[in-house]
Amino acid sequence: MAVVRLFASAREAAGLTTDQVPGATVEEVVQEACRRYGERFVAVLKVSKVWLNGEPATPTMPVTETDVVAVLPPVSGGSAPQKRPAPGPRGSRPPIVRGNLALVPDLPEDAPEPAAEPEPKPELPPLAVVHRSTRPHGRLGLAWAAVTLGVTVAGPSWLAGWLAVAAFIAGAQTCLVWRKRGERPVTLAAAAVAGALPVAASFDLEAMIGVVVAGVLVTFVARLAAPTKVPSRDIALTLAIGVPIGLAAASPVLVRHTGIAATLLLLALICFYDASAYLVGTGAASAWEGPAAGITALVPVTIFAQVALLPPFSGTEPLLLGLLAAVLAPIGPVAASALLGDRAAHAPALRRLDSLLLLGPLWAWVAVIFLQ
Fold first, then answer.
1. How far is the C-alpha of 47 from the C-alpha of 56, rounded, in Å?
2. What local confidence, expressed as pLDDT, does residue 77 receive?
3. Could you tell me where in the chain the CATH 3.10.20.30 domains are found?
4. How confident is the model at residue 343 (pLDDT cuts 50, 70, 90)?
């Protein structure tokens, strides 16, 4: 006597799941099951595998009342499939383990081998930026460069207004990213500080300091009017978003007061870096490929500046400015990822300014010293 366990189409053919069937061997148990369940079960048995206690069975194997004979058709169901073992020689298929039993697919000889599982891509650093061409980034980048060039030629006030709009949107988008994670920065205050700093830069440094002080006061008042569990964290996060974005947008405006040549050099370095990093880095497997291409693209721009921009610069000043851009421009996108808290977060306006986050303020300070 043995327990016969039926699966999938064998169960449907027999009308039950398990049954007690007499027999001293596997063959006797199966024959008795065929007599009990009829022709439909016999037809299913012809394409099935027979297992004894979870192992492949032969007809002469002895069975006892504690043994389980399993009838497993090729289409048997079971628990959630586990990882498929590596395929063996042609025409032989190892069992797919399901629970404490196994299913042996009865595949034809000419069946194709299962496709190999793709190797997992290497993990990128948490703040690394790998560009993806999911939107019309190229055309938007060209439009951004063209408009920025036009307002730069038009004058500091035009440039300040254009960058103020971009900074305001970047500040608002960054706050939205944080709010989706449960944080509570004061969105309007952060965006206002970011947008006001480029406008203040068209006047003087005192106006920029006034904007930062006003931003601190407005943020304090906002948190007093609508308190949260951690108001100090909200205030710090608000200023950490608004001030760096505002300074990045204000830096070309500050340089513009020294003349158009220095401003065009800064924007040319940024545009060439961003375009090259995007074209090479889009879909790249390694995070360093895009920045490496961007740094390489800065070489001809720096050489051109060394030849053509003497004056207003003198000596090796253009080379030093180009070297500064090569060091700090690649760090800007990483700093933007840190500002967002997630390299995959969607903040396109911030990504237009990210290369200026570190390079812009320091480059403006050095360029102003050189041109005094």
1. 15
2. 44
3. 2-103
4. confident
pLDDT digits (tens, 9 = 90+) for 68-77: 778 777 654 4
φ, ψ dihedrals at 111, nearest 5°: -70, 140
Quote the radius of gyration of the chain (alpha carbons, Å): 35
Q: What is the pTM of this model?
A: 0.65
Average pLDDT over residues 229-243: 93
Q: Diameter of the chain by CA atoms?
A: 105
CA distances from residue 77 to 8, 16, 123 in whole angstroms, order as listed:
6, 15, 35
Q: Give all strands (DSSP E) within the chain, no chain letters.
A: 2-6, 18-21, 49-52, 55-56, 68-72, 96-98, 101-103
228 vs 166: CA distance, rounded Å: 29
CATH class of the domain whose range is 2-103:
alpha beta
d(CA 275, CA 281): 10
Residue 257, CA distances (Å) to 158, 160, 319 in order: 12, 11, 21
Query: How does residue 273 score in pLDDT terms, banded at 50, 70 and 90?
Result: very high
Gap between the Cα atoms of 289 and 230, Å rounded: 40
Q: Is the dihedral of CA 106, 110, 115, 116 positive or negative?
A: positive
